[in-house]
Amino acid sequence: MTTPEHSATWSEVHAQPGIWADWAAPLATQAAEVAAWIKTQGFTEIMLAGAGTSAFIGDVLAFAGGNANPRLSAVATTDIVSNPHDCLRDDPKLLVVQFGRSGDSSETVGTLDLLDAAFPNAGRLNITCNPGGALATRAPAGYAAQKVILLPEATHDAGFAMTSSFTTMLLSALACLDDADVAGQLAKLAERAQTLLPELAEMAPKRPARAIFLGSGALKGVAREQALKVLELTAGQTVTSWDGTLGFRHGPKSVITGPDLVVCMIHPDAHTARYDNDVATEIRAQYPQAQVITLGGGGADVDVQATGDARWDAVLYVLAAQVWGVLWSAELGYNIDNPFEGQGNLSRVVAGVTLYPLAS
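== Tagatose-6-phosphate ketose isomerase ==
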């Protein structure tokens, strides 16, 4: 058994405010260079790709992709590897952004192989935490344009669960895509996270048998990451579910069976927030045994907002699942840094996937 304070994961969760603050100035410089490069290259579509938690970065950032220029889309590398012709095209106007903590997972390498072999003209932006991984070190086989953003060493989480790697890769990509004061945004987020982390630990709910996470817009991707974080850290002993706030009414609400935990994220946009609050109120009325916790701005049970932009504030919303997941893992008596220790069925870096060559 590992106590929270003696786990790498707990330390990595609490290191995030300092990481963001220290990374702010270097990131602002790199992001400006990458943004200028994207404009110069004339990319018309940016595909945000990763596996697992890394894929959910794209889910958060691409939600507003219809209004973005270039257009943003989110495609998991697990889909790219198995369905390459449905996902990729050999187009110099396409930029594939790959996220990877290790930069060495099977699907990461498989996507690089596919780009080299069949889609050599697509541009590449690799965002990774590991200086020795394929995303950081591998050059395109052809003449495709490529940039690499290597995050601070502290983001290369030692624990099984991705925490600082997820939030800092998300912020790094957003800095390249959003016309905002990068250093100012990270300073606000770091300041709020510094006080929010102990607040979340202090009010942590009792571990539920089921935990449901709901969010609208960009926060739907956060809900997906929250659900995975709790599922991983409790080694499946806490069954989790996630959905869009309004979509939850259309069947998925049947997952609530008793004294479950429902976390409803209240979107910073006032219009969207009305719907989020309505669903939270409805669940409280219909399921009096369930515990409903709202995360949002003023009026929510927990104030997690700093910038008023759901994409930037996403890194604050996800802290709840990170903190509570660690505490619940300890309550179950697991090794927090490796909840599946001794089982051999999950590993920190997914490897051993058979990669099949693409027929010409």
